[in-house]
């Protein structure tokens, strides 16, 4: 039998270690084995706790909290399959470098491999999708073991926060009785200061980059996972070099409020259609490839004509093209700022002007398109982008939703922050992640743009909005099924193969879902109505579902029409 | 680029291998990378396919199909987090020995570790919770590789079906283009016959058991995971030896329609309360410990007074008590039948009679209890047990629901099959597993007994009922929160700690849930009304939710009243 007071001291000291390394939030799922840690976290003044019964939603919610706060977030659950429900969010967190501190509780050694209830092997439960797995010692109250508990809490949290950031899993074997002693002071006092260095290049290496880039015909290609503030620095770099900049929507280049002509927000539409007379001498990529497949194919086609630079602090070599000639492993922002300061020669306008023209022609063509003036999934997505308030937060789902934004949205004067789950691009956990984002800044405008299948996949997450009064506006693009497949090769299939396996209509009445979770519900009937609804949201955030009824075929037809007309217009300009 | 025809032949041959080893059903979640396998499974006449977008529900549904059909079931999904959603059901399948054939599809080697979208490390994704992980070769069309594909399909499925049964994970790297050639014949013809031996004891070993057991004061203790047919054989063994039999609800002893006085269905209530004058000389356990904690404590208290036999074909030593003196690793049913045939000496009635009296006193006390005549969670659970049709199927959720049945239900004349997820006892995936059970025998009465938190956790599973017209009757015990904790040590906590972390009310209107998924809905207002509803279900199965509004405190009060009165009555009898 574990001494109640020793267990309490041990676990409380562990919590204090996590606090020392920056933990401020925890998401707890109810259970019995996790009782002492749940109570200690809940009672801890320095930690804000959230409760969610469905561990899958809980973990994605923690991911959203971490994304919007840039802080490590704790997850806690009981033993058994509860923890396995965390797995999708953990895989996403590992791929997209988010620091989750995953605490699972477990039977002690004497109750393992003996058929004890709610017990399973939790060692390395999340396989290679966490940075570390740590089996904690059975709680003891000696100074040695309290030092150890503090150290693990502090060190594991810091490890999660080091580049490349990512989740850490700690497994706690706990003996009964499980009730802690709640009389102990729950104010964390011990702290360990961490002065964390960042990767920097030498002066000589920087000068070599500047010499290799300035005055050359170049392109900046910026991947996702950047804040609006970081995006502004990239745009400044583009302007300093006079290079066009192609980016992922989640790079926040088109949402940071800087409307530079060098921003090639419609590259996906035109890049494979134009006749390239001049090729880039240099491509400088930052992080993962942007979502645009056409950009990827175009980069691939450059082959040896161009010198490829790949800037990536993580050193993970996530370069799908395998074309990197110079890999730069450095903290991006300071590096980019230094380059800006050193560049003296702009590239000639003839290089950037052709790109600016292509972007302008595309923007103009989109503006003239009659379909953009009536309500459909594409126009609705664009309108959401345009109606985001300054400092607002938009979460965009995977599959079609992010592609609508990527292809059609242009830089506007509003500056807001766009989020998404682009580590592994799943359609799972989207609502919960968006609610995590919303919980960090609930006073701002918070919007989620999502399709019906992703909405269905994570409906349980809506309970968090109800429980914590999270004023998220959900713009639901409902085409009753898997709209993305109508854009892929699967569309060649006969209907009897396509509909049941890829179309997968779910026929859900989402007004009932809204009612179930106490959300307001409106079905948008026109683009004008949607505009008014979104404008209201800017000032009066509320938990609501705005449904836009779409059509899978219509989306494809609109895209094909755009491409056909655009080809024509681009040909005229050349 | 993979040759389309080679890829088709390779994957089709793999599917034929699985069919040879008994695969008849597959559950597919939509995705792009999985396209060729999805289409081949869907087109295969010998395989019935189901589609479910939420992979977590899909996997539990497959588990239910496997439970009710005693057949291996295929799961298929695309790459990335999709597969991670399978994890909870896989952990449960591994712990409860269900043969799932889990097929994940993956990027080919050249697109791994390079940041390709929807790609993550899928090697050993389910860690130690599958019997085998197999990385398949890239599809090729040579005879060698077709033989290999067939072999893996046949062999992996057979491996999943060998004792101890369990899930197998095969990961398929697939290159584009992903559309298969659907002109190929999709009738599986090649087969491999498997003559599978079973573990048997020698004649001498059997005689030693018979000699050690017959005429001795003994107890049979039967764990879960047995069919009604198997249960009858255990009861026959009890009657042959004249021993009382204590069992888990999922042993189906109390549901198999044999009402023997030796069945100690209320052991959990009386076993710690009676004064034992005679101790058992022999305890023979089959499989896992029953759910009853009081039975466990009682067995533990026997220590050296009793010789403990532990019959377990798996050889996994899942004996939490660690008291086994003789471990018998043998196929249960044939072994039990042989013992029955050889036993010649019955144990004296004075041994069994005291047990029969205790059971009778308890049954009588329960019958007299006024609370059993009005509607509450306990009485509703008992009524479900009594109103199950012959050959019906009842799925019981974990946490409180199965405990109500365990404590209070007695053997009746109806014989039906009771199912549950008692590998790791999670409250996740219950609805989907029950729907899998229902899909195997939809013409029978199919009932699910579930609490509100488990219902919420797997609400997405209800889409399967809607899509496939599965006539499941859900009896929802709604006490608005985690009712189990009111029975555990956590109830000592102050309300401000208890309610948010353990009580966790979710305040959902389940009539809306019924409406969302096209289920009928009734709120039961009386025990009589519930009886009528359940009787109708016997003849006219329908997809419906019958809500029983419960109260967490009331459940505890009822239990405490039973225990208090029972103590008194048992004392009078001694």
If you had to describe this structure to a student in words, what would you say it looks like?
The structure is a homodimer of 574-residue chains. The first copy, chain A, is of the alpha/beta class and 574 residues long. The first copy, chain A, folds into three domains: 4-173, Rossmann fold, CATH 3.40.50.970; 203-364, Rossmann fold (3-Layer(aba) Sandwich); 370-566, Rossmann fold (3-Layer(aba) Sandwich). The first copy, chain A, contains 21 helices and 17 strands. Chain A has helices spanning 4-20, 35-43, 55-69, 81-84, 87-95, 143-161, 203-213, 228-241, 267-270, 293-302, 332-342, 349-368, 377-386, 400-408, 430-440, 452-457, 462-468, 495-503, 510-516, 527-539, 552-573, and strands at residues 25-28, 48-51, 73-77, 100-106, 132-135, 168-173, 218-222, 245-247, 282-286, 307-311, 326-328, 393-396, 417-419, 446-451, 472-478, 520-523, 544-549. Chain A has a six-stranded parallel sheet, with helices on both faces. Chain A is globular and about 80 Å long. Chain A starts with a helix and ends with a helix.
CATH topology type of the largest domain in chain A? Rossmann fold
Helix amount of chain A, in percent? Answer: 40-55%
Q: Sheet bearing the most strands of chain A, described?
A: 6 strands, parallel
Total strands of chain A: the figure is 17
Biggest interface, residues from each chain:
A-B, 88 and 88 residues
In what range is the share of β-strand residues of chain A? 5-15%
- By oligomeric state, this entry counts as homodimer
Number of H/I helices of chain A = 21
The N- and C-terminal alpha carbons of chain A lie at a distance of: 82 Å
Shape of chain A: globular
CATH superfamily of the largest domain in chain A: Thiamin diphosphate (ThDP)-binding fold, Pyr/PP domains
CATH class of the largest domain in chain A: Alpha Beta
* Spans of at least 5 consecutive residues with low confidence of chain A: none
Give Rg of chain A in angstroms.
Answer: 25 Å
> What would you say the CATH architecture of the largest domain in chain A is?
3-Layer(aba) Sandwich
Q: Give average pLDDT of chain A, whole number.
A: 96
Classification by helices and strands of chain A = alpha/beta
Strand arrangement within the widest β-sheet of chain A reads 2-1-3-4-6-5
Family (chains A, B): Belongs to the TPP enzyme family. MenD subfamily.
Domain Menaquinone biosynthesis protein MenD middle (chains A, B): 208-396
Domain Thiamine pyrophosphate enzyme N-terminal TPP-binding (chains A, B): 12-124
EC number (chains A, B): 2.2.1.9
């Amino acid at each position: 039998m574990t001494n109640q007071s020793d267990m309490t001291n041990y676990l409380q000291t562990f919590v204090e270690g996590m606090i020392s390394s920056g933990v401020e939030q925890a998401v707890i799922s109810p259970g019995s084995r996790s009782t002492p840690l749940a109570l200690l976290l809940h009672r801890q003044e320095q930690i804000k706790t959230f409760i969610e019964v469905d561990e899958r939603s809980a973990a994605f919610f923690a991911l959203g909290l971490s994304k919007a706060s840039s802080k490590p977030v704790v997850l806690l659950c009981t033993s058994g399959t509860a923890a396995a429900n965390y797995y999708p969010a953990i895989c996403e967190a590992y791929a997209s470098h988010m620091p989750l501190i995953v605490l699972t509780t477990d039977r002690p050694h004497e109750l393992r491999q003996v058929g004890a209830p709610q017990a399973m092997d939790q060692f390395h439960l999340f396989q290679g999708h966490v940075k570390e797995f740590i089996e904690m010692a059975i709680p003891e109250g000696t100074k040695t073991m309290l030092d150890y508990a503090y150290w693990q809490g502090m060190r594991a949290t810091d490890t999660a926060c080091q580049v490349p950031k990512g989740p850490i899993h700690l497994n706690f074997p706990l003996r009964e009785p499980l009730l802690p002693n709640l009389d102990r002071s729950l104010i964390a006092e011990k702290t360990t200061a961490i002065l964390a260095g960042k990767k920097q290049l030498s002066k000589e290496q920087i000068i070599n980059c500047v010499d290799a880039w300035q005055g050359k015909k170049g392109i900046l290609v910026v991947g996702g996972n950047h804040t609006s503030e970081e995006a502004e620095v990239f745009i400044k770099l583009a302007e300093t070099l006079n290079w066009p900049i192609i980016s992922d929507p989640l790079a926040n280049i088109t949402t940071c409020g800087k409307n530079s002509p060098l921003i090639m927000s419609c590259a996906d539409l035109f890049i494979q259609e134009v006749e390239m007379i001049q090729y880039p001498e240099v491509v400088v990529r930052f992080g993962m490839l942007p979502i645009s497949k056409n950009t990827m194919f175009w980069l691939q086609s450059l082959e040896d004509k161009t010198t490829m630079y790949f800037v990536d602090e993580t050193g993970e070599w996530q370069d799908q093209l395998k074309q990197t000639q110079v890999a730069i492993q450095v903290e991006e922002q300071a590096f980019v700022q230094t380059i800006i300061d050193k560049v003296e020669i702009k590239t000639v306008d003839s290089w950037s002007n052709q790109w600016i023209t292509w972007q302008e022609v595309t923007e103009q063509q989109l503006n003239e398109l009659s379909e953009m003036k009536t309500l459909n999934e594409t126009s609705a997505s664009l309108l959401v982008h345009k109606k985001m308030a300054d400092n607002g937060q938009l979460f965009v789902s995977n599959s079609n939703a992010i592609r609508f934004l990527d292809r059609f949205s242009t830089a506007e004067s509003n500056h807001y922050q766009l989020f998404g789950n682009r580590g592994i691009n799943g359609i799972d956990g989207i609502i919960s992640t968006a609610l995590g984002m919303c919980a960090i800044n609930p006073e701002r405008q918070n919007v989620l743009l999502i399709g019906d299948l992703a909405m269905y996949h994570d409906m349980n997450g809506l309970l968090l909005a109800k429980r914590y009064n999270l004023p998220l506006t959900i713009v639901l693009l409902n085409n009753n099924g898997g709209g993305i497949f109508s854009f892929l090769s699967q569309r060649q299939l006969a209907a009897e193969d396509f509909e049941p396996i890829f179309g997968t209509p779910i026929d859900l009445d989402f007004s009932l879902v809204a009612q179930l979770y106490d959300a307001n519900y409106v079905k948008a009937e026109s683009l004008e109505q949607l505009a008014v609804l979104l404008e209201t949201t800017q000032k009066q955030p509320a938990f609501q579902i705005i449904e836009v009824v779409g059509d899978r075929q219509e989306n494809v037809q609109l895209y094909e029409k755009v491409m056909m007309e655009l080809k024509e217009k681009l040909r005229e300009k050349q």
